[in-house]
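--- STAGE predict ---
source: upstream dedup step, 1 unique chain passed
mode: sequence only
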Amino acid sequence: VEYAVESYYVIAMSEASSNLARFDGVRYGQSGGYDGNWNETFAESRRKGFGDEVKRRVLLGTYALSEADVLASPTMPVPPMELGESLSDPITMYLADANTTPVNMANLPAISVPAGETDDGLPVGLQFVGPAWGERRIIRAGSALA
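--- STAGE serialize ---
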């Protein structure tokens, strides 16, 4: 709880940065008008298509993750469910995807490895997320726990 606000901003800005990276004016977003220089095209697309607050979040999120080799998080933010339990509690079922869905949507490599178990003996996973094309890095990180 002591660092909740700080943690929230690092995570939220980093997610914004990685999720908005696809808006390059080629596949998604407003076209920057290709003139032979892709970097200028991407920058122009984002200048035209993003408001000041979005640009700020992308910049802060990019900075927050620029020095990280991998990002570690619980695979699920809720304890694992007993067999059949998720069917009667849809909110918990949807929450179970909260840590993996943004990574998947950002098209980043991730791996979930066993990281212990609950008091009830149910398995708990730890997710490692890497940069684009960082599969080797996350596999090494996951292997270190094996």
